[in-house]
Amino acid sequence: MGRLATGEMKRLKPSKAALAPLGKQGVSAYFLLGIIAFLWGLNYAVVRVGLESLDPMLFLMLRFGVSAILMFGLLRWKEGSIGISPGDLWKFIALGIIGTTMLESFVVVSIDYTTLANSSILSIAPWPIFAAIFAPIFTKERIRRSLIGYGLVSMLGVILVILAGGSFSLDSDLLLGNLLAFSVSVCGGFYSAACIPILQKYSALRMTTWMFSFGTLFMLPFTTKAWGATDWAGIGWSTIGALACNIFVITIICFLLWNKAMPQIGAATASFYRYLTPLAAALSGVLFFQEPVYSGQLVGACLMFMGLIGISLPAARSGTVKQKAGSSLN
């Protein structure tokens, strides 16, 4: 990385256009976050196909590792450099470990140790709460009363969507999986708040590239056995297609757009849009695996949309939320 020259440091700072709203003629940040969260939910069906031939941790490492390599090339082409300030190195390492290695690994592992319903509720429902807790530490984001009220409505909706299609249990045999799933929310809330000060200094592309790089690096020790145990010759086109979709669409495009849009409306507000993910996951089960739809899921979906609309409208009327970095990551 080395010490950066003055000219390169200027290139590191995102332009005013990069930090401005997505444009009067473009899609709003709210709509964009909703679309991305929905795509992440549909991706559950795609991942299920990919895991038929690949170990879960190996799938994750390939997904984020290949994405990071491609993004370094894109970063060099778009911004003319790939470096970061040496003083910020520890911030990217922390984001990589918590926001990529731990978060993504806990999602995959928790499913093996608890029910899908438990994993979905505990990893998604508390996420915005922790984003709201961490937000004042890293930013000066103000938590509105309407955000809390409508957020609870959305949370109730997501719980209904998940419970209607499965059974939630706090059985002691599922304790490890439940704790791992709950840890996803803690890691996700931290990541959502902690990356905003960094996005005020670096572009979404540069921040995401380095976060994925360090996240992949710390995944490597957990994939050593899987490399030799995988039948590489037997991997079919369906698995290759699932991995390619995850790399290009779900990881590179979605993460870049999410990290660009999130600072415009605040970490806590943006986190509630992740409630669309389980709804889309349930829909993907219906479309691709002929899973049944229950009336409770439809009621939950309506509550989620009501809550998200309520969250979005007050912020939209008052203008874009302006983030100011706190002292913790400076």
From TrEMBL:
Principal place of residence: membrane
Cellular location(s): Cell membrane
Cited InterPro entries: AA-Vitamin_Transporters, EamA_dom, EmrE-like
Pfam families: EamA (PF00892)
Bilayer disposition of the protein: Multi-pass membrane protein
Domain EamA: 29-162, 176-312
SUPFAM superfamilies: Multidrug resistance efflux transporter EmrE (SSF103481)
Alphabetical list of Gene3D superfamilies matching this protein: 1.10.3730.20
Keyword set, alphabetical order: Cell membrane, Membrane, Transmembrane, Transmembrane helix
TM helices/strands, residue ranges: 29-51, 57-77, 89-111, 117-135, 147-168, 174-199, 211-229, 235-258, 270-289, 295-316
Domain of life where this protein originates: Bacteria
Family classification: Belongs to the EamA transporter family.
Name of the molecule in the record: DMT family transporter
Organism annotation: Paenibacillus lignilyticus
